[in-house]
Design goal:
By secondary structure, the protein is of the alpha/beta class. It contains 18 helices and 13 strands. The structure holds uridine-diphosphate-N-acetylglucosamine (UD1).
Length: about 375
C-alpha cells in the first residue's frame, strides 16, 4: 500500500455478553497490524446492564466502543430490525472494508445482513457450529450468518464439515481454533488473582456452579421447575453458586416457582459475575451445571466436569473431547449424572486442536492477507 493511502477500515461487532469475550483477542491481534488497519469496535447495545457489558470491557482490557447503537431488549424481530437499521446508517457513512461478526446472537445476524446488502464483505468468527435444532434462535442466526458471510472462521473440524456439506466453497473456510479460549489464556494471571472464592466463603473443589439462561429452559415453569428440583437434590451433597442471568432472575421471581425456590436453601442465587471472577469460580468448582455453550467450552479447557442442561449442542467436541455430558432437563437424569461426578466418576477430557490461545492471531493474519493482498506482515 502506498504511503498516505487511507487505512482499510474494519468494524468489529459486539452486542451480547459472549461477544465481548470473543472480540477481545481479535481486537488485540488486529491492533497489532495497526499501521495498516483502522479497527473500530461497534456495540449494538443488545446487552446494556453494567454487569452484562461494562465489566467485560474492563476485565478483558477492551477499550470503550467507538460506536454504541443503543438498541436494548426487544422482541427478536424488533431487535434484529433495529440493529439492522442502526448499523446500516453507520456503515453507509463510514463504509468499512470489512465487518467482523462473532458467535450466534441477534446482533451477529443483523449486522451481517445490513453489511452484506451494502456490498461490504463480512467475516464470521465461530462459524459452522450447528445444533440442528431450529427451535433455538441462535441456530437460525448461525445458518443465516454463515451463508451470507464471505470469510468463515471455525473453532473445530466439525464446523468445517458442516459448512462444506452445506455447499460453502472451501476457500471461504478457515479453521483457526477457539477465540474464547484465547481470552481465558490471556487473562490467566488476572483469573488466578480473583478473590471470588474468598468473597463467597467457598473452599476449592467443594462447591458446584450453576448457570441457566436458554429460553427453552427458563421461559416456562414446566421446564425450569424440573431443573430447580434437581438443584434441590444436589444441594444436599454440595453447596451451589448460581449467578443468574437477568432473564432467569425474572423467571425465578414467578409466583408458580415460589415454594420450590424457597427450598433451595443451599443454592446461592447471585448477580451475574464479571469475567475473571466467573472463570475463577468455574475453574475451582467440583462440578458445573449449565445450558451455556461458552461454558461447555471453558469447562472442557479447564478440565472441570460439566453437566449440560440441554438436549443437543452445537459444540459436540465438548462431549467427544471434553468434560461435558448432555442431560436435558429431566430431574432424575441431572441428579444421577451429578451424583456420579460427586462420587469421583467425572469425565476427564482433552483440549481440542487449536484451542491454544492463538486463534485471534490466525484470524488477524487471514484478514490482513485478504484486505491488503500483496503486503507481507
Ligand atoms: C442472548 C443471546 C444468547 C446468548 C445470551 C448470552 C440472542 C437471540 N440470544 O440471550 O444466544 O447465549 O445472550 O447472555 O441473541 N436483559 C437485561 N439486561 C441486559 C440484557 C438483557 O435485563 O443487559 C434482560 C432483558 O429483560 C431481556 C432478557 O434479559 O429481555 C433477554 O435478553 P436478550 O438479549 O434478548 O437475550 P438473552 O437471553 O440475553
Amino acid at each position: 500500500m502506498s504511503m498516505g493511502a487511507p487505512q482499510p477500515r474494519i468494524d468489529l461487532i459486539v452486542g451480547a455478553r459472549p461477544n465481548f469475550v470473543k472480540v477481545a483477542p481479535v481486537y488485540r491481534a488486529l491492533r497489532g497490524h495497526r499501521d495498516r488497519l483502522d479497527v473500530h469496535l461497534v456495540h449494538t447495545g443488545q446487552h446494556y446492564d453494567a454487569n452484562m457489558s461494562d465489566v467485560f470491557f474492563a476485565d478483558l482490557a477492551i477499550p470503550a466502543p467507538d460506536a454504541f447503537l443503543g438498541v436494548g431488549s426487544l422482541s427478536h424481530g424488533a431487535q434484529t430490525g433495529a440493529i439492522m437499521t442502526q448499523y446500516e446508517q453507520l456503515a453507509m457513512q463510514s463504509r468499512p472494508d470489512l465487518t467482523v461478526v462473532f458467535g450466534d446472537v441477534n446482533s451477529t445476524m443483523a449486522c451481517t445482513l445490513a453489511a452484506s446488502k451494502l456490498g461490504i464483505p463480512v467475516a464470521h468468527v465461530e462459524a459452522g457450529l450447528r445444533s440442528f435444532d431450529r427451535t433455538m434462535p441462535e441456530e437460525i442466526n448461525r445458518v443465516v450468518t454463515d451463508h451470507v458471510a464471505d470469510l468463515l472462521f471455525t473453532p473445530s473440524a466439525d464446523a468445517d464439515e458442516h459448512l462444506r456439506r452445506e455447499g460453502i466453497p472451501a476457500d471461504r473456510i478457515h479453521f483457526v481454533g477457539n477465540v474464547m479460549i484465547d481470552s481465558l489464556v490471556a487473562s490467566r494471571a488476572k483469573i488466578e488473582a480473583s478473590n471470588i472464592l474468598g468473597a463467597l466463603a467457598l473452599e476449592p473443589k467443594r462447591y458446584a456452579v450453576a448457570t441457566l439462561h436458554r429460553p427453552s429452559n427458563v421461559d416456562r415453569d414446566e421446564t425450569l421447575a424440573p431443573i430447580l428440583s434437581a438443584l434441590e437434590s444436589i444441594q444436599a451433597r454440595v453447596p451451589i453458586v448460581f449467578p443468574a442471568h437477568p432473564r432467569t432472575q425474572r423467571r425465578l421471581a414467578a409466583e408458580g416457582l415460589r415454594a420450590l425456590r424457597a427450598r433451595l436453601t443451599n443454592v446461592r442465587i447471585i448477580e451475574p459475575l464479571a469475567y475473571c471472577d466467573f472463570v475463577r469460580l468455574v475453574s475451582q468448582a467440583t462440578l458445573v451445571l449449565t445450558d451455556s455453550g461458552g461454558i461447555q467450552e471453558e469447562t472442557t479447557y479447564l478440565d472441570v466436569p460439566c453437566v449440560t442442561l440441554r438436549k443437543n449442542t452445537e459444540r459436540p467436541i465438548t462431549i467427544s473431547h471434553g468434560t461435558s455430558v448432555l442431560v436435558g432437563n429431566d430431574t432424575a437424569t441431572i441428579v444421577r449424572e451429578a451424583e456420579r461426578i460427586l462420587g469421583g466418576g467425572g469425565k476427564r477430557g482433552t483440549v481440542p486442536p487449536l484451542w491454544d490461545g492463538h486463534a485471534g492471531e490466525r484470524i488477524a493474519a487471514v484478514i490482513q492477507r485478504r484486505i491488503t493482498p500483496g503486503v507481507t506482515q
